[in-house]
Write a structure and sequence with these properties.
The structure holds two protein chains of two kinds. Chain A is an all-beta fold. The radius of gyration of chain A is 13 Å and the shape is globular. Chain B has no helices and twelve strands. The chains are: A mainly beta, B mainly beta. Chains A and B meet through strand 4, strand 5, strand 9 and strand 10 of A and strand 5, strand 6, strand 10 and strand 11 of B.
Chain lengths: 114, 117
Amino acid sequence: NAGVMQNPRHLVRRRGQEARLRCSPMKGHSHVYWYRQLPEEGLKFMVYLQKENIIDESGMPKERFSAEFPKEGPSILRIQQVVRGDSAAYFCASSPSGASQPQHFGDGTRLSIL
Amino acid sequence: AQTVTQSQPEMSVQEAETVTLSCTYDTSESNYYLFWYKQPPSRQMILVIRQEAYKQQNATENRFSVNFQKAAKSFSLKISDSQLGDTAMYFCAFMKHWRTSGSRLTFGEGTQLTVNP
């Protein structure tokens, strides 16, 4: 049973470029969550998606950030025109459908902005 | 909004001894879940233990157990017979219960635990 798969593990971008982070949930899981971990801090919720739907994006910055979870393929977190403050570890988690279930995390993508 | 507070940024314990990590939370919800996650130096997020708020019995998983005090909104983690591999950052987390849907996790700031040989 493959776990939550995130890629890439490390991503380096220059200021102003775009960053695309991918997440494939565990088999059978239809709920995906994105969290951000700034250096020396805890994880902060960004967005919660189900297939083709954004359920809760209250933790997502209003500009430059977007997320999708298409019918086919992985969930994508997209950051446009990256800035130094976007440097962080981005974690994806997934859970099965139904009532609140434990979330299983991927290994994260470490984004570094030059 | 829910908040989770971990008042101990760092703790250390000798191998084979017992250590307790503290967590308090604030919520107006009556039905929710609490979790402890472990983040070792590899930076994976690993679920350690889970507690449903409607259950009075404290959850246990091998060497890990919790002391859940609902009225006090306290949720501490006890690690018995500490092992070197327990060295990690430990995060307490809160999740509101939804009957038909998932829900976000709200994390504390973490406690760095070091197990010394």
